[in-house]
Amino acid sequence: MGFPAIRMRRMRRDAFSRALMRETVLTPADLILPVFVREGRGVREPVASMPGVERLAIDELLKVGEEALRLGVPALALFPAPDAAAKSEDAREAWNPDGLVQRAVRALKQRLPELGVITDVALDPYTTHGQDGLIDASGYVLNDETTAALVRQALAQAEAGADFVAPSDMMDGRIGAIRQALEAAGLIHTRILAYSAKYASSFYGPFRDAVGSAASLGKGGKHTYQMDVANGDEALREVALDLEEGADAVMVKPGLPYLDIVRRVKERFGAPTFVYQVSGEYAMLKAAGRNGWIDERACALEALVGIKRAGADAILTYFALDAARWLRGG
Ligand SMILES: NCC(=O)CCC(=O)O
Ligand SMILES: [Mg+2]
């Protein structure tokens, strides 16, 4: 049977029948807001390459957390933008129990216990060289030594009350090492969100401005640990290993250029699959919107629905609060 018995446009004719056959519905509960945390009180410092995004002192962060809850956004992902004095060759500030992130976690969990708090496990905000791990004399990022440092960092975050620790560093074996350490410490409820398929993407540029690692990183890339943008099968092997090692959820990052990976990961493993719409994706939409070249709201929501349609269970996006407002008709 074909045309004219079949006319695909019949169902598209009216809003009610379009609504009834809609396959993917984006809600605020699908979204996680990444936030940049800094020292100080009452400070909100704009990030030039990410219009609308600010580095927040902890008291300001609490207000943003409250707004997220009010809008139905279930969780924040914290990223530190520490003072330059907190950076060192060995990143030891990362596991200081009174460090910036640990204080931010405690403040959030005390004031807003029902808001999910996700912490970033990686050394780049704390290293003088801007790499995610510890390096040898040639600048190569050392796997096992870095993993030992990441375990200390994850424990400090979990002890402060983080609901999810989220290793974004791409060292081999770190999920298993962190899981073992959490169990041994009695922290059996702490979830691990593994950045399993994290690509060596150029779309992270504005993020590196935000956390202040761009200058220290200089021309050094992250290609010896993050994945080659051309690869798909390798992502599936990474995800399989992280799930085996004890990850509760896995991440694909960035979002829009990697939706084939999202689909393959979701179909193959059926595990909670999170996607990070990264800073460069945000900056592109913002810049074009601000120039009047695209409709920012419509295009941002379209990108987010597309990511969910591809298989994402949750999306980290700098649009989270705006998108929640738009979805609620604001
Ligand atoms: N671990 C976080 C990143 O590496 C970048 C995120 C972004 O570009 O938004
Ligand atoms: Mg891996």
UniProtKB/TrEMBL annotation:
Pfam families: ALAD. Transmembrane segments: none annotated. The keyword Lyase applies. Its EC number is 4.2.1.24. Pathway: Porphyrin-containing compound metabolism; protoporphyrin-IX biosynthesis; coproporphyrinogen-III from 5-aminolevulinate: step 1/4. Keywords: Heme biosynthesis, Lyase, Magnesium, Metal-binding, Porphyrin biosynthesis. InterPro entries: ALAD (IPR001731), ALAD_AS (IPR030656), Aldolase_TIM (IPR013785). One of its GO terms (cellular component) is cytosol. It comes from the Bacteria. The active site is at residues 198, 253. GO terms for biological process: protoporphyrinogen IX biosynthetic process. Mg(2+) binds at residue 238. One of its GO terms (molecular function) is porphobilinogen synthase activity. It catalyses: 2 5-aminolevulinate = porphobilinogen + 2 H2O + H(+). Homooctamer. This is Delta-aminolevulinic acid dehydratase. It comes from Mizugakiibacter sediminis.
